[in-house]
Design a protein that fits this description.
alpha+beta, Methylamine Dehydrogenase, Chain H, 11 helices, globular, serine protease, AB_hydrolase_fold
Length: 688
């Protein structure tokens, strides 16, 4: 039955964009007023009561606690002959940074965040200086991802008094980029209020006062985007790489010049150019003229680095999708995808083949979501450390040395799903495109009858949806359900063409792919519409919202998490405007605005429609998908729902987009929304 929702008023407001006028009756829920806070807390109590009345809640929480591991592994960092790693000895305890002679050796604690006496302090990143004598860390205290720099003397454990005062927006540019002589570093930070999203690169020298003025780097004009700094091993070349989804080395600084100044480099190509400095050459993986990627060499003193005909091919394009390169000594470890699964090969700086790395199975190699992130962390000079995961097992850490061509296990997977298997399938989208997906299930969950099924996907921003361990969501498979991990167009699993086929004017392909996977599961007889749920986070939260409103007949339950649900209202926010113009469409064109409204979940809600059971999960301090997206859509859905299924919303205090959520808070958050899903799909977790 539909619970008694808190009273929710409407207002006579309209969205007017490029001459297109659309009603916006819940505009008031965008504000952070006392009235909104009261409404939000009433809704939270309603949602919490609904799931905690389920008699299997505590059993599920035990499962969720077991499978809640870090989304990405805390990879050790090598500096000064030793290894630095983030370490959490007990789940829920504040993390610490340990320095040891081996990547996971016993070592000594450099800094323990528990000693800072700050509630829910989160370690956003850690970066030791090349000489290993100074450790830089980022500290977040409210889940928002905004963090401040701390500097610690490794030997004395003393904190530096003079540190930069600027606030880093997040950890996505690696925290700090040290100079090779350890005398200072570059960092990317806010120059004003968070909402205005003005950011710039700063340089901090340890023997000088903290910086007040940003570096004069000539970055391209346009909306907000990320800029990260790379420094060559000898310190001669400093490269500014700009663009989160399609990074490019837009500017260089030659410190050997008598009067060094930043000058433009690769500024006028369409695509990704992401790599490393080798001597006086920038060796990069690019999708320019090669949608699945090739590796090229670009002289750093080039008269015109935009002349792609002068780039030297080192590794030609192939059927494999080249994803990233890691420079280890004089060789490159090249990560690639073959039908979504990871492969690694090794080439020298001329592109000559030096063999492959034997991976432990079919799965995912650790990488952060966006292409820019893959070129930031300085590696060991002659050891390739990598994380490997499958849908059934969490991250294990391995080491490969080219000299002996051996793969050494350094740290085993923290958890696996006992008795689980992974199966690979393809669905066919309406235009004939094959859409890959995987099913994680127990061997004992046989297909003689339909089963509760949870479909999880993303499909956007040139991000590959890696077939890696799903963390707490593994509880769904462990309880006997089918967990489905789908690869939709808009991602990067098959290169730039796959991205372009699911963005801008082609965005609806992403949702058509999702429905094709759902219908393929039903056709195979493994589930039914009464046993099928859909979820996703961020852009995947948008996807879930679209799925619920476009195809309410297809699902029994839907959970948009940290979602982007008002595509047009987002244009009033600098971050939201950047998201829309990068991925969805041109808001200055009336026809484009009408197209955007056709997949904006807030504008898709129709009164008198029978919608599935809905649980909207969001964070109060989310800087990317602010909680008003969730509030407005949930209010609209509650008013429009004609069926008996509940529409609930839970917004968590001191939780953001999920990148800085304390472990135990995340356990509770995942337990509540998974309990909602299992309750409405009739899936009962076992205490064993």
């Amino acid at each position: 039955m539909v619970p008694p929702y808190p009273p929710t008023r409407t207002v006579d407001a309209y969205e007017d964009i490029a001459g297109v006028r659309l009603p916006d009756p819940y505009r008031w829920l965008e504000e952070e007023t006392d009235e909104v806070t009261h409404w939000q807390r009433q809704q939270a109590r309603l949602a919490e009561d609904h799931v905690k009345e389920w008699p299997h809640y505590d059993t599920l929480r035990e499962l969720v606690h077991r499978y809640s591991v870090d989304r990405f592994p805390n990879m050790p960092r090598y500096a000064g002959g030793r290894w630095f790693r983030a370490d959490t000895p007990v789940k829920g305890r504040a993390p610490r940074v340990v320095v040891a002679d081996e990547p996971f050796g016993a070592g000594e604690v450099v800094v323990d965040l528990a000693d800072l006496h700050t509630v829910d302090t989160y370690l956003s990143w850690q970066s030791p200086a090349p000489d290993g004598r100074t450790l830089a860390i980022g500290i977040c205290t409210d889940g928002s991802e905004q963090n401040t720099i701390r500097l610690i003397d490794v030997d004395s454990r003393q904190h530096h008094d003079h540190v930069p005062e600027q606030v880093l927006y997040d950890s996505w540019t690696g925290g700090v980029a040290w100079l090779p002589d350890s005398s200072g570093f570059y960092f990317y930070a806010l120059t004003g209020p968070v909402r205005e999203l003005d950011l710039a690169v700063f340089r901090h020298d340890l023997d000088k006062e903290p910086p007040t003025a940003p570096e004069p780097i000539p970055v391209p004009a346009g909306g907000p985007d990320y800029t990260a700094i790379q420094v060559s091993r000898d310190g001669r070349w400093i490269v500014a790489v700009h663009g989160l989804a399609t990074p490019s080395p837009v500017a260089v600084l030659d410190t050997h010049d008598p009067a060094p100044e930043w000058r433009p480099f690769v500024t006028d190509v369409s695509g990704t150019v992401a790599g490393h400095v080798f001597g006086d050459t920038y060796i990069a993986l690019t999708d320019v003229d090669a949608p699945r990627g090739r590796i090229v060499a670009i002289p750093l003193d080039s008269a015109d680095a935009n002349d792609t005909s002068a780039w030297v091919d080192l590794v030609a394009a192939s059927d494999a999708v080249l994803r990233s390169i890691t420079a280890i000594g004089d060789v490159l470890y090249v990560t690639e995808f073959v039908d979504t699964y990871a492969k690694v090969r090794i080439v020298d700086r001329t592109g000559a083949d030096l063999g492959t790395v034997a991976l432990p199975g079919s799965g995912a190699l650790y990488e952060l979501p966006f292409a820019l992130m893959s070129v930031l962390s300085p590696p060991h000079p002659d050891e390739f450390l990598f994380g490997f995961s499958t849908l059934a097992s969490s991250w294990a850490i391995y080491r490969h040395r080219l000299a002996d061509n051996e793969v050494e296990l350094l740290r085993p997977a923290e958890v696996t799903v006992p008795g689980a298997i992974v199966e690979d399938y393809f669905a066919t989208s309406p235009d004939g495109t094959a859409i890959p997906y995987h099913i994680l299930r127990l061997k004992s969950t046989v297909y003689s009858m339909p089963h509760p099924t949870l479909l999880y996907a993303y499909g956007g921003f040139n991000v590959p949806w890696l077939p890696m361990f799903p963390g707490a969501m593994a509880s769904f498979a462990a309880a006997g359900g089918l967990f489905v991990h789908a690869h939709l167009r808009g991602g990067a699993e098959y290169g730039k063409d796959w991205w372009d086929a699911g963005r801008m004017a082609n965005k609806e392909n992403c949702y058509a792919d999702l429905y094709a996977v759902a219908e393929d599961l039903i056709t195979r007889g493994v589930t039914t519409t009464d046993l099928l749920g859909v979820t996703g986070g961020s852009n995947g939260g948008l996807m879930a919202g679209v799925a619920i409103t476009q195809r309410p007949d297809l699902w029994r339950v839907g959970v948009p998490r940290v979602p982007f649900l008002d595509v047009l209202g987002a244009l009033r926010d600098p971050y939201g405007e950047g998201v829309v113009t990068m991925e969805f469409g041109d808001p200055t064109d009336a026809d484009e605005v009408r197209r955007l409204s056709r997949f904006s979940p807030y504008h898709l809600v129709r009164d008198g429609t029978e919608y599935p059971a809905v649980y909207v999960d969001a964070g109060a301090t989310d800087p990317r998908c602010p909680p008003w997206h969730a509030r407005k859509w949930a209010a609209r859905m509650q008013a429009a729902q004609a069926g008996d299924a509940p529409v609930l919303i839970r917004i968590w205090d001191d939780v953001g987009h999920g990148w800085a959520t304390p472990a135990l808070t995340m356990v509770t958050e995942y337990t509540e929304w998974l309990a909602f899903v299992m309750l409405h799909l009739g899936l009962i977790p076992s205490a064993g």
